[in-house]
Structures are given as C-alpha cells and as structure tokens.
Amino acid sequence: MKANVSRRTFVMSSGATLMAALMSACGGGQSGDAATPSDAAKQAGIDYMALVNKTHALPEGWEDAVEIVHFKNTEDWDVDVEAKAYDAYLALKEDLEADDVYVDLDSAYRSVAAQQEIVDDFTKKYGVEYVKQYVAVPGYSEHHTGLALDLFLIIDGKGVYENEDMVLYPELWSKIHAKLADHGFILRYLPQQKIETGYSYEPWHIRYLDDVEVASKIMEEGITLERYLDELDPMIADAEVDYASSKLYTEADIDSALEVVLAEFTSWTGCTLKRISYAGDDACTAEEIAWMNELREANTPDAEEFDQTLVFTSDFHSPSEKEAEGTAWEPDADYNNWTWHLGRVGADGGWQLMTWGY
Ligand SMILES: [Zn+2]
Q1: Which pTM was predicted?
Q2: What domains are there in the chain, each with its CATH number?
C-alpha cells in the first residue's frame, strides 16, 4: 500500500482514531494511483449524477473513464480528485476565503484496488468480522468516483481534520454548506438521514454533481441524493425517523442501532415502515438490561453480559392479502407501536437485536 500521507500512517497505527475513521463513510482509505484511461472510455466520460452507496456499486468502466488530477494540499499530503470536481472545489475554496472561511481537501478519489488492499491488510490484522463491520466494501464507496470530497478546516492557520474536532465548528460548516450548490456540490450525508444514505452525518463529505441547478434544488429542499434520484427502498422510503433526545447515546449510536433494525425489517417482504422512534432514555432500565441478558443467555451463554440497551417503537403496514399469504401477518393492516429491543456490551460492542413485537 502506498503510504501517501503521514497522517494516514498515524491513523493506521492508532486504535481509537482508526476506529473513528473507519466507522465513518470516509474512513479506511488511502488514495491509490490513478488508472491509465483508454481513449474510448475517456471519451465516453462519466455520469456525474451516478449513485454509489452501500447498495449501488461503482458503475462498470468508471475507473477507465474518470480523469483524475493529483495535487499536494497545504499539509503536503497527496490528494487525487476528479478533474472537473477539482476545478469546482478551487472555485468554492476561493468563494469561502472571501468570507474568511478556510478549507482544504483531505481525501477524495480512492481506487477500488486501494480499498481492496485495505480490506486484505485489515483482515490479516483484525479478522473478517472486524472488516465486515468497519471497512467499506470495495466498489461501494462514493470515494471511488473521485466526485466525493472530504474537506478539512483551517482555523488560525492550523489544520483541523480529525472528525471529532471538525464537528465542533457547526457555524463554519453552515457557511460552507450554504455555498456548495453554487459550485455544483451537495452535502451528501445529512443529519438524521442514515435510513436513506446508510451513513451518519458527515459535514465534511461533499459530492460534486456538475449541475448547479440540480445541486441547488437538492440543497434547498434538504434532501438526500438517494431521494432526489428516487432510489430509496420502497419499504422504508416514507418512514419518519424520530431520534428524540438522549443523554445516553449519540446520534451515531442510535444510527448504528437503527441500521441493525432496518436490516431485519427490510427482510419482511411486503411490509412498509411508517415511523420509527428512539423510545427514549427512560426505556433503558435495569429490567430491560436484565431481560436482554436473559435472551442473550439463552442463545449464547458464554458471551459477555450486555450493559447497555436501546429500544425503538415503530408503526408499519403489513403486506397486501396476496403477499401476506402463507405468512403470520394480518394482511393490509397497520401495526402500531411495535417495539424493537437491542443490547450491547460497552460503547464499542455493536448492537444486537434481541427481540421485537408487542
Ligand atoms: Zn468522505
């Protein structure tokens, strides 16, 4: 693997930082060498509106067609980025500097091969389960497009680029986000939209669309690219998600539990989710923990005891008469206040869905 960035090398060796980097949509990557494009593929060009997410792979032939430029940022890190996106980024940067907001580019293009190297490397070091949980599947990261850019902030001449530090400047990010559309960019991972994008909020991850009009519409409406392109799973497309407020859990904690619940729900053919809500800190009682541990004990008696629980309530609609045939669902009915119960061992333990129902 090409060690292109001193910070990346540091990230690779620091457990906590590593975890934080890999758990985000942007983590797990060093930029690889740009592919040498064939003339034909190059001429065909790329679709700047292409959707790449956890369920939509990088379109075939992309790496031959995409034109990548290479530069060194202010920290002397090597950065690769798609050519038009780079020009647009430079214009955005200049526009921001007029308002005394300073940004730089952390990472943009990463080849599928580079991501595969990371998977292989981490599988050796940490095992298959770890990789499955934290490292993006090669071919399914928006960074493969070269159109996804991770910004970092420069404050008083000093780079601020760790995720946990960058989130401390919401006013700066609002100023940045307000100018994105003028340059053909959108904010890609919105707050409380994991259900649609598959990722928690990342103020630094922006996406180039090469279309100011479309970018403006998306930013004005505050919608995800998935919704704009009408690519949402119909089972969850109309669902309202309520994160409520929590002193126990961060939005990312709730997101990771939501992901586990949705993985189960979307296997229930014909059901459509109407609402899902965090049931609140009051639902995380000693009795709930004891109950989760009873269920855990029945399945995996040797596993570590849960010390945290999380409950969601939800409303959904059951399958039509035809689709419900042979299932336990009452057909075409509303199921309201259906609950979902999860447990985990410590903050890094990973949520386990233990039971659901009334
Ligand atoms: Zn990113």
Answers
A1: 0.84
A2: 20-228 (3.30.1380.10), 240-357 (no CATH)
